[in-house]
Amino acid sequence: MLAVSTTPRTEDVAARLRDPALFREQAYDCGAWRSAEDGDVRLVTNPSTGMALGTVPALGAAETRATVAAAHAAFAAWRRTLPQERGRILRRWHDLMQQHAEDLAVLMVLEQGKPLAEARGEIQYAAGFIDFYAAEAARVNVEGVTPHLPDCTMTVRREPVGVVACVTPWNFPSAMITRKAAAALAAGCPVVVRPATETPYSALALAELADRAGFPAGTFSVLTGDPEGIVGELCANPLVRALSFTGSTEVGRKLLAQGAATVKKMSMELGGHAPFILYDDVPLDEAVTGAMAAKFATSGQDCLAANRIYVHRRVYDAFVAAFARATEALVVGDGFEPGAEIGPLMHERAVAKCHAHVDDALAKGARLVAGGHAHPYGGLFVAPTVLADVTPAMAIYREETFGPVAAIIPFDDGDDVLAMANDSEYGLVAYVYTRDHGRVQRLVEGLEYGMVAVNRVKITGAPVPFGGVKQSGLGREGSRLGLEEFTELKYVCATV
Ligand code: NAD
Which chain regions cross the lipid bilayer (predicted)? Predict the structure, then answer.
């Protein structure tokens, strides 16, 4: 059994790494490692054990202003650096990530808590964006125009937007940074990252590797500390020309309002509340495997998590029973425990939200078919839980639980499951399981979601556009489109 300590002792993080220099307790500011002006620090803890991992500088608005000014100064040379050379530096960064993949995964387990296998997967996913944009750097093309006016030439140039701010969440501490930063750097923009308060060490290890890869000073910085001070400055500063945020819809709305004063480009990857629609023509095993992966990846702390599992009445009872059995069999534990599938949640408030959603659903008539009790590990561990007969009156039907609690809803032939799936302010991803082509076509056309997965769960990767509609966000990451978020068009009409 895990021991969850109440008074944090310090874990020796460096001793767990093959390259201890990847554990950095300072911020990376325009090519130099630094502390806060006033020496203030924030404690970082391991969510599995409650033990302290170390500290990071608590930087604020004034330090951020200076970093942005230095990044802006570096912009002139970085935008003129040949795209092929930017690509070469990105490639070295990617190769260093691969060389140090195991250390990066270990750091992630220590500060985020996810199982080691998931952390290894995230490092590969994260490195994939750098690999992709290293090649894409040289393909930021000028578009041709056929003139509609006499005696002139017309061109449209695609130019880097300027300093880009990246604000990222704790559930994917590496991939949410590389998905943004690799695209912006490839486009010729300097980048200032503000990683999540809870998971700075993955970001600082990426900074150490970026330093070794040879990015010029000022083109890449990672500032740790006060979210309101740092992010407030990034939003207000006119030299920041684009801000790319991944996190909750609630904070995204605030940042959109704060960024409005300086009319910058804002990309938003926000919350999700994915429907998973299962018809009765799919083998039960395949349906359960798919739904388990879609619900419980990242311990349910995933914007792509299948939060509303709609199951056709003809297979409902069989599915509920099999899904409950599979859920009870999930291995909960510290991310380093062999075979661990579900780690701890990130905060007390996340644990409280899971329990509140379960209590509310049970009070309104849901049926508890797995879990539901406090997990014996205590601390931030929650027992994987399944609720059947969930209805729209329950909080879990409307809100992201962001934890290992599954909600199953039956539907009948006469029900409009498409309308049920679209009945949400979110629109990130939807899952459809059926072999009927007509149904697939109708659902794919009708689903108000940025991404649709049909008879499969894993669909993301660097070459494809990731993003949502409605209140799940604005813009796309990954693919060529992700690069375009960090460029502006300049139309030139010349008579010479
Ligand atoms: P969050 O919105 O609380 O925090 C995101 C980032 O913003 C963190 O760096 C945080 O420190 C910072 N922040 C928080 N409050 C702030 C404030 N008032 N001003 C400025 N910055 C502030 O989100 P989270 O809890 O870290 O992550 C979970 C959320 O992220 C979920 O809603 C999830 O769906 C979403 N998410 C979306 C995607 C996607 O690609 N669409 C991916 C991962 C997570």
Answer: none
